[in-house]
Design brief:
heterodimer, A: 8 helices, B: mainly alpha, 14 helices
C-alpha cells in the first residue's frame, strides 16, 4: 500500500498535468498555436486515470481500458502511416514509440491486476493494486519492460530538455512544459507499475 | 484533427549527441539512479523493516569501526523510516535528473560519487569485502561502489569527442588499465574466496534474489541456485578464472581488450540474469538493479574505436 502522503501529492501533480494538457487544447485553438491535440488529450486522460489509481478512487476500469486501447491503436496507426509515407509524419519515431508505450502502459496497469475475486467487467483498480502482493499481476515481464522504457524515456527527455535553448518551431505552444509534463507522468507511471509487480 | 511537430523533435545535432559514447554512458548511469530512486519509494522501504532487515544486517561480521556507524544509521532509519527513506529516494531521483540535465552534470556526478560511497559503507557494509561476502555472484563488491567507479569514468573531459575509449580519455592509458585490473582481479579473487561459503548458503542466496517473480525468472534463479548448490566450488573457480582472464587482457594488444570487453559484457549479463535475477526488481524489496548492469556499463567505457566515436570525433557532417 502506497503511503497517502506520497500518493496524494502525486495524484495532485497528475491532476495538474491533466488540467494543463486539457487547457493546451483550448489555448492552442484560441491563439492559433500549434500542438499535438491527440497527445494532449491522451495525456489529460492519463493524468486523471493515474490520479484515480493513486487515490483509490478509480472504481471502474473497463471504460478507461477502452480509452487507452483506442489511444494505443491510434498512435500505432499514426506511426505506421508516418513510416510508410501515407501521410505527413508530424511526429518523429521516438515520440510515436513514447506515446504508444505510455498508452500501452495504462492499459497494462488497468488490465494486468489479477484479483482473486472481482467482476471481470467492473474491477476496481485501486483494490487490485493494494492486493497485488497477494494476488499478483498478469505478465509481470511486460511490466518490467515498460518500467525500463519509461526510465530511459525520462532520462532522454531530461537530456533533450536541457540541451534545447529554443524550440525548433516557434509556433509550438509551450513545448518545454509539455516535456516536463511527460517527465512527471513517466516517473509516476513507472512508480505505479513497480508497486503493482 | 490537426497535428503539428512535437517539441522533442530531434535535430541532427541531437542525433550526434546521442552518438557520443560518454554522454550515452552518463545517461545510462542517470537511468540507473532513477531506477534506484523509484525502487526506494516502494512501500516496504517506508516501514521499520527496511532499517532493521536490510540495513542493519550489513554490519554483521565487519570490524567495529565499519559496523558501528552502520548500526547507528540503521537504528535511526528504523525509528524514523518515513522521513529518512523519503530523503534517500528523493536524493537518488535528484541525482538522476541532475546527471541527465547537462548544466548540472558535474555537480551531480560529484554528488553521486559521495552518495554512492556513503551507501556502500552504511547501506552495504562495504559490499562484504571484509567479511568474505563479496562474491560477484552475490552482487559483490557492492553495486554502490560500482556507481562511484562509473561516475569517475564518465566524468566529462572537455571536448565531447572520444579518442580512444571513455575510460582511457578520462584516466589515461595506465590509470584506466590499472582500474580495470584492480576491478576484475578483485572480482576474481572474491569469486574464488566464495568457495569458502557453504554450498547451501550460496544456493539460498541465489534463489532468494528473484523474490519469486516473474515465474520464468524465478525458475532460472532456482536452476542456477541448484547448479551452484551442487557444484559450488567448480562454479566459483570457473567464474574466478574467467574474471581473471578478463582482467589480464587489458595488458594485451587492442584486439584482446576488445575481446575482454565483450566477455565482460556477456559475463555481467549472465551474472545479472542467472545469479541476481535482474536485481529482483519485481520483489518489492530491491533497492537497486544490483551489480550486473554496472559491470556492463563499466566494461562499455573501455570499448575502443566504436563507429559512433569515430563519427563523433570527425565532427558534424
Amino acid at each position: 500500500m502506497i503511503p497517502s502522503w506520497i500518493s496524494d501529492p502525486l495524484a495532485a501533480v497528475m491532476i495538474a498535468v491533466a488540467a494543463y494538457c486539457a487547457g493546451r487544447i483550448l489555448v492552442a485553438r484560441a491563439r492559433h498555436r500549434r500542438t499535438d491535440y491527440a497527445a494532449d488529450a491522451v495525456h489529460a486522460a492519463m493524468g486523471v486515470a493515474m490520479a484515480g489509481m493513486l487515490t483509490a478512487r478509480l472504481t471502474t476500469t473497463t471504460p478507461w481500458i477502452i480509452v487507452f486501447v483506442v489511444a494505443t491503436g491510434w498512435f500505432g496507426v499514426r506511426a505506421v502511416e508516418g513510416r510508410m509515407g501515407m501521410r505527413p509524419a508530424p511526429l518523429r519515431s521516438g515520440a510515436h514509440a513514447r506515446h504508444i508505450a505510455t498508452a500501452g502502459a495504462m492499459v497494462y496497469m488497468l488490465a494486468a491486476p489479477a484479483p482473486a475475486s472481482a467482476s471481470p467487467t467492473h474491477t476496481s483498480a485501486s483494490m487490485s493494486m493494494t492486493s497485488s502482493a497477494a494476488s499478483g499481476v498478469r505478465l509481470p515481464t511486460i511490466g518490467l519492460a515498460l518500467i525500463a522504457f519509461l526510465v530511459i524515456s525520462t532520462i532522454v527527455l531530461v537530456d533533450r530538455l536541457s540541451s534545447q535553448t529554443k524550440p525548433d518551431d516557434p509556433d509550438l505552444l509551450a513545448p518545454h512544459t509539455v516535456m516536463c509534463c511527460q517527465i512527471a507522468m513517466n516517473i509516476t507511471m513507472g512508480y505505479l507499475l513497480l508497486t503493482m509487480l | 484533427m490537426s497535428t503539428a511537430a512535437v517539441p522533442w523533435q530531434r535535430s541532427a545535432s541531437a542525433t550526434l549527441r546521442v552518438a557520443d559514447p560518454r554522454r550515452a554512458l552518463q545517461l545510462a548511469l542517470a537511468a540507473l539512479w532513477l531506477v534506484d530512486g523509484i525502487l526506494q519509494f516502494q512501500p516496504y522501504m517506508f516501514t521499520p523493516a527496511f532499517g532493521r532487515d536490510v540495513l542493519a544486517p550489513s554490519a554483521a561480521g565487519n570490524p567495529s569501526f565499519v559496523a558501528a556507524p552502520i548500526t547507528r544509521v540503521a537504528d535511526f532509519v528504523t525509528r524514523h523510516p518515513a522521513p529518512t527513506n523519503a530523503a534517500f529516494a528523493a536524493t537518488q531521483i535528484l541525482l538522476a535528473l541532475g546527471i541527465a540535465w547537462r548544466p548540472l552534470l558535474r555537480p551531480a556526478l560529484a554528488a553521486s560519487i559521495v552518495w554512492a560511497l556513503g551507501v556502500w559503507w552504511l547501506g552495504e557494509g562495504l559490499g562484504g569485502i571484509l567479511t568474505g561476502g563479496a562474491g560477484p555472484l552475490l552482487g559483490g563488491p557492492g553495486a554502490a561502489l560500482l556507481y562511484a567507479v562509473l561516475a569517475v569514468l564518465v566524468w566529462p573531459t572537455g571536448p565531447e569527442e572520444v579518442r580512444r575509449s571513455v575510460a582511457v580519455d578520462r584516466l589515461g592509458s595506465r590509470g584506466a588499465a590499472g582500474l580495470w585490473l584492480a576491478l576484475w582481479l578483485a572480482l576474481a579473487g572474491f569469486a574464488v574466496d566464495a568457495t569458502s561459503r557453504s554450498a547451501a548458503g550460496l544456493r539460498n542466496a541465489i534463489s532468494g534474489m528473484s523474490g519469486g517473480r516473474p515465474a520464468w525468472l524465478a525458475a532460472i534463479g532456482n536452476d542456477a541456485a541448484s547448479v551452484c548448490g551442487h557444484h559450488s566450488t567448480t562454479v566459483c573457480v570457473f567464474v574466478g578464472a574467467l574474471l581473471a582472464l578478463i582482467a589480464l587482457a587489458v595488458v594485451g594488444p587492442p584486439p584482446a581488450l576488445r575481446l575482454a570487453v565483450a566477455c565482460a559484457l556477456i559475463t555481467a549479463a549472465a551474472i545479472w540474469l542467472f545469479a541476481e535475477a535482474l536485481g529482483g526488481l519485481a520483489g518489492g524489496q530491491s533497492t537497486d538493479p544490483n551489480s550486473g548492469p554496472l559491470l556492463a556499463l563499466i566494461a562499455l567505457a573501455y570499448w575502443p574505436g566504436t563507429t559512433a566515436a569515430r563519427r563523433t570525433a570527425a565532427g558534424p557532417t
